[in-house]
Design brief:
The structure holds two protein chains of two kinds. By secondary structure, chain A is mostly helical. Chain A has helices spanning 2-8, 19-23, 28-56, 67-102, 111-134, 147-151, 156-183, 196-228, 241-273, 282-295, 311-339, 348-371, 373-379, 383-413, 419-446, 460-490, 530-534. By secondary structure, chain B is of the alpha+beta class. Chain B has two domains: 8-39 and 63-211, Sandwich (Immunoglobulin-like); 214-305, Orthogonal Bundle (Cytochrome Bc1 Complex, Chain D, domain 2), CATH 1.10.760.10. Chain B contains six helices and twelve strands. Classes of the chains: A mainly alpha, B alpha+beta.
């Protein structure tokens, strides 16, 4: 009977049909799904590059691919994963879909600009994809000069232009979110009643709007030097190569927070729902997001401790880097405290949340290692750094992204995913991840440099362990891909609120109607007030 | 396969310092990781949902806790900051009695030059127990000189000199890696550092087929490039004398001052118009393209060997190796070129 009702009722998926109704849609939910498809493609593309890298590193010799190809593989892995998966991952998919729903709005403030953002990402993605297919690029995702401007014979300009265009997608999405949160909250939805996901997405948007233009400027300068031979970064033309590093990290360090802040927002939602308690220290968690966004702009120089930056600049950047650690620590402690005396269920999204907290803790703590000046001199540009940022990006952001995707899947599709398979794959991902990246901490301290195609034989055992872990991880990522698609047809029908959650997105039907709410919701409670929702929970 | 090293060799004075900091960082990290994992695991089991109708009491937070878990971690991070910074300052400041060597990186090899004139590629021989200071530059892209056993690393940049120093504490053979991605054969830009007993090192040094010291090679270049046509030792030429220049502060035309260090001499050879000495015309042509980075180093070393005698003194005779100049001990400097022959 419920199934029949679902088929009859009009919602955003059956409101109109045909390819045009998707490609010209102004519905933030459909645009969210367009992003989902796009970034999934890039995730598996980046994953394929990573797979080849890990297979190559099984042996110390370079036997699977040539050095030139290896260098292109790690470059394209980084470009695909950072610019076309991690940065848009949570804000552009889950944020796009749920930000308006969570604040009780009909749509984003600028629906057409929202669609434009997706097209910009696609155009940027196609440009970079074209560069990859035409011959690839070998500069590393960091494009350090003067290698990228005067020495590399690969497709630097096409790739950089792809990133340049995709950057505007990021800027416009950020702008759209900021205006939406300011102007379109439902009656009664005050700032301190906002779900914490909204707070962290808002903080992220601020970074996107303020930081990304600097990346654009940097790419233009790179373009000018490579194409017009203007002396900006290349010392033989009177430039300064370290200037590029300053400009690049002025964006790319805050970009780390573009990737991880929304993940923190997802975790706040999950920890609350599956322990049926408000997040401990709501205000602290909310302001910690803002603090991270602001402080994130002041620490870029910690990427330059051995690049001839002045001693005292190093001192200041190390000092400021430790300041960012505090709001991150506050979040971890508050999430853990939320569990205390809660009613904790082990649904898949909560398993991902546990995984996130654990792995982000390790990633964050090793961040304290590399912020220590004298220590960083030894480990910078080694696998220690590789392990550290994969704990944050993969152990943190991807765990949260998958957690959020499972949590909101019933709302997005109206169907439940298969719980048993989902739990299994969450476990496989957790184990595979640790086996892949933990040995890399050891490798890094031993002195194994990054971006090495060939390496000394004594490092082989650790590399083999890492590759073994990567194959487990790959299986863990493929399983959800299969059962999510399966669930679209065969999944159990989800009610409006299968988790007993408090957010406004759970007050409307699953999947939501095209206009989100039949009548504008009026908010009378703070976020995460489970007393208000318990009466109307649909159990099962 | 088969070897499984878990900890790098400790072969410099800095290495134990860095390792001790690692132990502290590890202790803090293990403490918090175990604490967080333990708390999550305990709460997850202890407070597992027993019935679907369960509704726990909402707790909104506690200011004392928030302050505690902000202030205590902050205190710990400040220990990390201070400790890391103090090691960094030691790493950045070579002792004044350090043995000087030059390094030129290029795609994809390391060229190393001893003051006595020995040249090595991808191998570096140094004596045990003596501080060694490397002055480094690159011919092309950015490289990074990395010796894991010494826990030392420094980027090597084109158009700039950077320095790195270490004091080996254990004889042996250690990996040298390029740590900054530099193109196709980046992972082939590797070599070995050989730390030798001092006597063995002396034998090695005198056994090699060096063609004279760096400074004397620089002197030949100085004459070969006809630098001595204008730079007379007594300052009588059209260009300032280079005797006693190194380490001195120079007055520039149009105001300003600059310390005559390696970077200034390098710049004056390659971009002579950049900083012209007060009272002289900008007539010197550039030597960009005529000299290699290694040639520049030889010229620098030659100018250093001219000592730091005050300008305007009588034509120097003999060997004006100065006090406080860490450079060439035992360098066979033959004095300065005669003004005009």
């Amino acid at each position: 009977m419920i199934t029949a009702a679902l088929q009859e009722r009009e919602h955003y998926l059956n409101a109109s049909y045909g390819i045009k109704s998707w490609l010209l849609t102004k519905d933030h939910k459909r645009i969210g799904l367009l992003y989902l498809a796009t970034i999934t493609l890039f995730f598996f593309l980046g994953g394929a590059f990573a797979t080849l890298i890990r297979i190559e590193l099984l042996t110390p010799q370079g036997d699977l691919v040539s050095s030139e190809t290896y260098n292109k593989l790690f470059t394209m892995h980084g470009v695909a994963m950072v610019f076309f998966f991690l940065i848009p991952a949570i804000p552009a998919t889950l944020g796009n879909f749920f930000l308006p729903l969570m604040i009780g709005a009909r749509d984003l403030a600028f629906p057409r600009i929202n669609l434009l953002s997706w097209y910009l990402l696609v155009i940027g993605g196609l440009l970079s994809l074209y560069a990859m297919l035409a011959g690839g690029v070998d500069t590393g995702w960091t494009f350090y000069t003067p290698y990228s401007t005067s020495y590399s014979n690969t497709w630097v300009i096409a790739t950089a232009l792809g990133i340049f265009v995709a950057g505007f997608s990021s800027i416009l999405t950020g702008l759209n979110f900021i205006v939406t949160v300011h102007r379109m909250r439902a009656p009664g939805m005050t700032w301190f009643r906002l779900p914490l996901f909204v707070w962290s997405t808002y903080a992220t948007s601020v970074i996107q709007v303020l930081g990304t233009p600097v990346l654009a400027v940097t790419i233009i300068l790179l373009f000018c030097e490579r194409v017009f031979h203007l002396g900006i970064f290349d010392p033989t033309r009177g430039g300064d190569p370290v200037l590029f590093q300053h400009l690049f990290w002025f964006y790319s360090h805050p970009a780390v927070y573009i990737m991880v802040l929304p993940a923190m927002g997802v975790i706040s939602e999950l920890v609350s729902v599956y322990s049926r308690k408000p997040v401990f220290g709501y205000h602290f968690v909310a302001f910690a997001s803002v603090a991270i966004a602001v402080l994130g702009f002041l620490v870029w120089g910690h990427h330059l401790f051995v690049s001839t930056q002045s001693l005292y600049a190093g001192l200041v950047f190390s000092f400021l880097s430790y300041f960012v650690a505090i709001p991150s620590a506050i979040k971890v402690f508050n999430w853990t405290a939320t569990l205390y005396k809660g009613s904790i269920s082990y649904d898949t999204p909560m398993l991902y949340a546990f995984g996130f907290i654990g792995l982000f803790t390790i990633g964050g703590l090793t961040g304290l290692f590399v912020a220590a000046l004298g220590f960083d001199v030894h480990v910078t540009d080694t696998y220690f750094v590789v392990a550290h940022f994969h704990y944050i990006m993969v152990g943190g952001t991807i765990m949260a992204y998958l957690g959020g995707l499972h949590y909101w899947w019933p709302k997005m599709t109206g169907r439940m995913y298969p719980e048993g398979w989902a739990k299994l794959s969450a476990l496989v991902i957790f184990l595979g991840f640790n086996l892949t990246f933990f040995p890399q901490f050891v490798l890094g301290y031993l002195g194994m440099p990054r971006r090495y195609h060939v390496y000394p034989p004594e490092f082989q055992v650790l590399h083999v362990l890492s590759t073994a872990g990567a194959s487990v991880l790959a299986v863990g990522y493929v399983i959800p891909m299969i059962y999510f698609i399966w669930s679209l047809r065969y999944g159990k029908v989800a009610g409006a609120n299968p988790w007993g959650a408090t957010g406004l997105e759970w007050k409307t039907a699953s999947p939501p109607p095209a206009h989100n709410f039949d009548e504008t919701p009026i908010v009378t409670h703070e976020a995460y007030d489970y007393r208000a929702v318990m009466g109307e929970v649909e159990v099962g | 396969m088969g070897q499984l090293p878990l900890f790098p060799e400790q072969a410099s004075t800095i290495a134990p310092d860095v390792d001790h900091l690692l132990y502290f960082l590890l202790a803090v990290a293990v403490f918090f990781t175990v604490g967080i994992f333990g708390a999550i695991f305990y709460f997850a089991v202890r407070y597992r949902r027993r019935s679907e109708q369960e509704l726990p009491n909402p707790v909104h937070g506690g200011l004392t806790l928030e302050i505690l878990w902000s202030v205590i971690p902050f205190g710990l991070t400040m220990v990390m900051f201070t400790w890391g910074a103090s090691i960094y300052f030691t790493e950045a400041r070579p002792p004044s009695d350090a043995l000087s060597l030059y390094v030129v990186g290029k795609q994809w090899m390391w060229k190393l030059e001893h003051m006595e004139g020995q040249r090595e590629i991808n191998e570096l021989h140094v004596p045990l127990g003596r501080a060694v200071k490397l002055t480094m530059t690159s011919e092309d892209v950015i490289h990074s000189f990395f010796i894991p056993a010494f826990r030392m690393k420094q980027d090597v940049l084109p158009g700039k000199y950077s320095t790195l120093w270490f004091k080996p504490t254990k004889a042996g053979k250690y990996h040298l890696f390029c740590a900054e991605y530099c193109g196709a054969r980046h992972s082939g830009m590797i070599g070995w550092i050989h730390v030798m007993e001092p006597q063995e090192y002396q034998n090695w040094l005198t056994g090699g087929a060096a063609e004279g010291s760096l400074a004397s090679a620089g002197e030949k270049l100085f004459e070969g490039l006809a630098c001595n046509n204008c730079h007379h030792p007594d300052g009588s030429g059209r260009c300032p004398t280079l005797v006693g220049l190194f380490g001195k502060t120079v007055q520039l035309a149009g105001g300003g001052m600059v310390k005559a260090d390696e970077a200034y001499i390098r710049e004056s050879i390659l971009r002579p118009q950049a900083k012209v000495v007060a009272g002289y015309q900008p007539i010197m042509p550039t030597f960009q393209g005529l000299v290699t980075e290694e040639d520049v180093l030889r010229l620098v070393e030659y100018i250093k060997s001219l000592g730091t005698k005050p300008e305007g003194s009588a034509t120097p005779s003999g060997v004006p190796v100065s006090q406080g100049n860490p450079a060439p001990k035992g360098t066979a400097t033959k004095g300065v070129p005669a003004p005009k022959r």
